[in-house]
Amino acid sequence: MPTTRRRFLSLAGSVTAAGTIPIVTLRPVEATPAMLTAAIRNVVGEAQLRTGKVKLDIPPLVENGNTVPMTVSVASPMTADDHVKSIHIFNEKNPQPNIGNFYLGPSSGRAQVSTRIRLADTQKVVAIARLSDDTFWQTAADVVVTLAACTEEMN
Amino acid sequence: MAALINVPAKARRGDIIEIRTLTSHIMETGFRHTVDGKLVPRDIITTFACRYNGTEVFRADLFPAIAANPYLSFFTVAKESGKLDFEWVGDNGYSSTASASIIVE
Prior knowledge:
A: about 160 residues, mainly beta, B: mainly beta, Immunoglobulin-like, five-stranded mixed beta sheet, about 55% strand, elongated
């Protein structure tokens, strides 16, 4: 969706730098395309989705979308009363919006998961954490991909 | 199938330890076409679970957007000596297991 991207670039003036990765930017939730929104609603339901607590560590520029290292961590004491139940990763422009769901608990000790993902295009990656009090927290990161994954045989 | 598991051999009670796993799998997305236009059927690992002395400490649902040869790293609290069991389950009846032992002092 080129218009979405253009609109994003025009919004870039109000961009917030995310923690330790200054090039990674945050976008308002309203700019999320329909499929991504539907996938997120599937997990979150009608609950409020707040920004914060979650940190998504992913390179802002990748050459090969076939394997992109990614680490997601959530600020949580991971006690029986206050822990992360699950972490959900979504993307905007792959053929399917889901990337992975990770289920944790107080015995995890630290709410951090790393994996390697595929990205079919330059796009936004969203991480959502569900805490033990059933609140949802999110963060998003934009990744520029020069060689796309998933569809290489079609080109 | 071959799997690489990285678990510290020894830990102190209460330590938070990192567990890293890598297994070999094609993770065919089901979105690719062959040169003559046929869709290559999906063949992925759909779930991964880690059990620590029988208790599940970590579980993951994987989708085609996970890269081939899925790598997963996560944490757990070293509670007692024993065994960690890992299980990957996927399309076409795929199932693979691995295990590692840990000594907690």
